[in-house]
Amino acid sequence: MLNRRPFGNTGLEVSELILGAGYVGGIVIHADDEIRRTLIRRLLEAGINWIDTAESYGDGASEEALGWLLAEVPEGDKPYISTKFRLDPDRLDDIPGQFERSLTASLERLAMDRVDLYQLHNPLGQDGFDISHVLGSGGVCDSLDKLAAQGLFDHMGFTALGDVGQCKELISSGRVASAQVYYNMLNPSAGRDVPANWSTTNFENLIATCQENNVAVMNIRIFAGGALAAAQPHGREFPITHNSSVPLEHTRAETLLAALPPGQGDRAQAAVRFGLAHPGISGVVLGLAELSHLEDALAAAALGPMTDDVIADLLPVWESDFA
Fold it and tell me: pLDDT by residue (tens digit) across 145-161?
């Protein structure tokens, strides 16, 4: 059975592996019904107790699939569910209305009365949307507090992308329970210092800010969209960090993986074990394309977190910015 970790200050205990029901992995959206049923049964047997989705995943297809899949699960066995919303930056004069319509539609697709975690998916400081729209009077947090009071969800979170300073301000505000943080072997900057000449996005140790404020961390993109999981692109990758591309991330992945000593499992398992090694992470979110990928991840968890001495072998690669 998988280990459980505290989910920030919520009082919840979450499995160290979380199913991400998104587009990049795609199994919840694209697989046939029997494979999806097998997936849900197997992850619950293994002790995975959290599934993360979003209204934008497959334009609602992920939520719809989870709606009928979880309806077949006995009530006492159902996992925690989180979903996400993205505000239209051209309609920021109606933040409460956008939320109400979005959450209502998500709950209908999920066939649920409530979700455990509802998350802001807009990058902060982009497209005219910034921290003032989140923390300001009548903004995101005030609007969601009112919906939470109606029993439609329990906790609020956000995806910590965009302006790092604004992400840290929101984490430190006391208004959010969780943050989805980009952290992997290709870009460890959310969990450790990187050199001043770091050429892609520097997340400036966001995980430490979360730890200081008892905010749960959901570790996203552990495979860097696929570059750390497989040598060949699968066609659904899209980098979300600056100055990056699919070919560059695959080239960097090969450089990094060559620096690992033997005994780390396969490349995908090494990636998962790297995420599990950070004590500030509540759960590693897995995007899966095939059932075998779940078994690989469970085997990685059984091997345990990557050790400090192995991570030390990666330091020269990071310090040279993959030169």
Answer: 999 999 999 999 999 99
